[in-house]
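Whiteboard transcription, Tuesday session. T.W. wrote the structure tokens on the left side:
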């Protein structure tokens, strides 16, 4: 289970994408998400998919990694496609859906709805792939520093930038570890005779209680240990210094500007 969670994992390499400033990658990811959801046609979506493929190729990462984290959201993808495909207006009346195939009376499948469902599902897939690419090519420390740097102007408005950056970093870090803990607890309970695939829906939901309860206890203990460790290191979140101050290179600035411009064109014209 833990191997299927890609968010929060880092794959060390010496590729061009790994060497790119993390702030530029975060800005490009935000612009990519906006372009992805503003693109109204398949051409724009296809270009976004091609850009994601180019990103993985430049990062020397196989495309299989881009889709490894889809299983947790597989239900959402299936629900999105099914919700758009099913129609109750597939009869032969004058107001019936022309592109629908009737199955039982007015109940049927809309071909146009199927295309829309696939379109929306592909958006989610590409968004997860782009998000995973950032965590694959940027270490946790780099992500924290990048978030802190991008949010620094908000410090004038009394926004706790340091705390926001730390919270984002901890969230990314503990997603895979929490999933791995859930997997270990589930295997331990199953070895004691717990059955998760027997009975009705209510019985299966109750069967997860012996897994969820110790998982939450483990999460609270881990949070308490982390808080104690940060307190022992006198962490306050203010006036932190850094051994190396990251500076955006001209090449990274050019790549960022070019990428944002391209994604803006996709969002506006496609």
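and on the right, the sequence the group agreed on:
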């Amino acid at each position: 289970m833990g191997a299927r969670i890609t968010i929060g994992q880092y794959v060390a390499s010496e590729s061009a994408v790994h060497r790119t400033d993390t702030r530029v990658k975060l800005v490009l990811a935000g612009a990519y998400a906006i372009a992805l959801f503003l693109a109204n046609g398949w051409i724009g979506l296809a270009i976004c998919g091609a850009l994601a493929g180019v990103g993985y190729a430049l990062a020397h990462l196989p495309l299989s990694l881009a889709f490894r984290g889809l299983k947790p959201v597989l239900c959402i993808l299936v629900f999105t496609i099914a919700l758009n495909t099913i129609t109750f207006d597939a009869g032969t009346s004058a107001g019936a859906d022309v592109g629908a195939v009737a199955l039982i009376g007015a109940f049927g499948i809309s071909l146009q709805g199927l295309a829309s469902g696939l379109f929306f599902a592909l958006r989610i897939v590409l968004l997860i792939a782009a998000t995973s690419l950032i965590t694959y090519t940027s270490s946790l420390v780099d992500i924290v520093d990048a978030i802190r740097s991008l949010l620094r102007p908000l410090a004038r408005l009394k926004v706790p930038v340091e705390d926001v950056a730390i919270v984002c970093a901890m969230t990314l870090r503990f997603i895979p570890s929490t999933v791995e803990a859930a997997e270990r607890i589930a295997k331990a309970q199953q070895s004691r005779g717990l059955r998760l695939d027997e009975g009705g829906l209510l019985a299966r939901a109750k069967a997860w209680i012996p897994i969820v309860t110790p998982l939450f206890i483990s999460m609270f203990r881990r949070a308490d240990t982390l808080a104690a460790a940060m307190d022992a290191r006198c962490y306050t979140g203010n006036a932190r210094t850094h051994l190396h101050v990251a500076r955006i290179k001209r090449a990274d600035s050019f790549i960022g500007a070019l990428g944002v411009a391209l994604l803006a064109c996709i969002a506006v014209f496609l």
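Someone added at the bottom: The CA atoms of residues 49 and 229 lie 42 Å apart.
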